[in-house]
Design goal:
single chain; 2 helices; mainly beta; Barwin-like endoglucanases; 10% helix; 38% strand
C-alpha cells in the first residue's frame, strides 16, 4: 500500500521546522531510537518509520530517515526535521521544502 502512495517517483512539498532544541540525548523517538538532535532524521505523522526522504531546500539536499511521529496537526506543519537536518539544509525557522521518498523500510 505505501509503495503505491509514496513510491520513488512521488515528491511532495512539506511545511517544516526543526525540533529538538534541548541537549538531552536520552529521549527516545517513536521508532525506539535515541533522539540525536544533530542527526539527519525527521518526524512525520503517516510515513512508515524507517522511510528515507531526500529533502531539497534552497539548492541544498539531505537524505533523512523518518524515525519519529509528528508534528502535531494543529501546528499546520507536516514534517519536522532534526536540528542537524535543518542545519544541513540552511533552515533556521519555518520553511517549505521538497521531499522525495528514496526508500521504504
Amino acid at each position: 500500500m505505501f509503495s503505491l502512495l509514496w513510491g520513488p517517483a512521488h515528491s511532495e512539498t512539506y511545511f517544516t521546522s526543526w525540533y529538538g532544541g534541548g541537549e538531552k540525548l536520552n529521549r527516545h523517538t517513536s521508532s525506539g531510537q535515541v533522539f540525536r538532535p544533530e542527526g539527519l532524521t525527521a518526524a512525520h505523522r503517516t510515513l512508515p518509520l524507517g522511510t528515507k526522504l531526500e529533502i531539497t531546500h534552497g539548492g541544498r539536499h539531505a537524505v533523512v530517515v523518518v524515525n519519529d511521529r509528528g508534528p502535531a496537526a494543529w501546528t499546520g506543519r507536516n514534517l519536522d526535521l532534526s536540528r542537524g537536518a535543518a542545519k544541513a539544509l540552511g533552515i533556521s525557522g519555518l520553511a517549505h521544502v521538497k521531499g522525495r521518498v528514496v526508500s521504504l523500510p
